[in-house]
Amino acid sequence: MITCIIRYHIDPAKKAEFEQYARNWGQVIPRCGADLVGYFAPHEGSTTLAYGIYSIESLSGYEQYKARLAADPLARENYEFAKRERFLMREDRTFLKLASAPHGELVRP
Fold first, then answer.
1. Mean pLDDT, rounded, for 57-78
2. What is the dihedral of CA 9, 12, 17, 22, to 10 degrees?
3. Which is the most buried residue in 20, 73, 82, 104, by most CB within 10 A?
4. What's the pTM value of the predicted model, to 2 decimals?
């Protein structure tokens, strides 16, 4: 399993547009075969950093996932929305694998 972390630099005046973009991916990403952790918009601190995080079984699985995204109508619409509204200033992807497992049980004080 690999996890893709997308770091976005967004226009802080267009946070609402980013949030709509994120909600759309919340529908598309699971439908296309990835396990979506979530999209995260600025709340406190930086007004320009946002993240999208999902996991997929392998890099070859990622290639298949990208093909499904390319064919998905809402995904194509979302790409066009971002291009038209210009709220994404920069987008970087990093692929990571979990190194800390197995985890201990959560203890609530």
1. 96
2. 40
3. 82
4. 0.90
